[in-house]
Amino acid sequence: xxxxxxxxxxxxxxxxxxxxxxxxxxxxxxxxxxxxxxxxxxxxxxxxxxxxxxxxxxxxxxxxxxxxxxxxxxxxxxxxxxxxxxxxxxxxxxxxxxxxxxxxxxxxxxxxxxxxxxxxxxxxxxxxxxxxxx
Length: 134
What we know:
Layout: H1 13-18, E1 36-38, H2 46-54, E2 58-60, H3 65-73, H4 86-89, H5 93-102, H6 106-110, H7 116-133
Parallel strand pairs: 1-2
């Protein structure tokens, strides 16, 4: 999903999750819910965590340092820390490496295209070229 450059990613979470379609290898309809969402600390807001939990998706996002200190300052009223699977989080590097490859395309990294459809087409083209090289 392509949005305006100034728009934050968290605002589009529900739309992105609604567009997920993962085809099954055998028969049956496509899956519409991922097993887990792996993200960095920028996505550690309560709104994102609640939305993922509401949909039954495992949240693998480390807690921000300021959130940890605020929770600890509140003591027993601060609640429990959210669960975090460090082993699953290690797999996030695959996505980060793909972003690094894609950003080697200067037009994508700087977002020269003004139209979202043109930008999305460039992202798909870059992904196809990267995939054929692998």
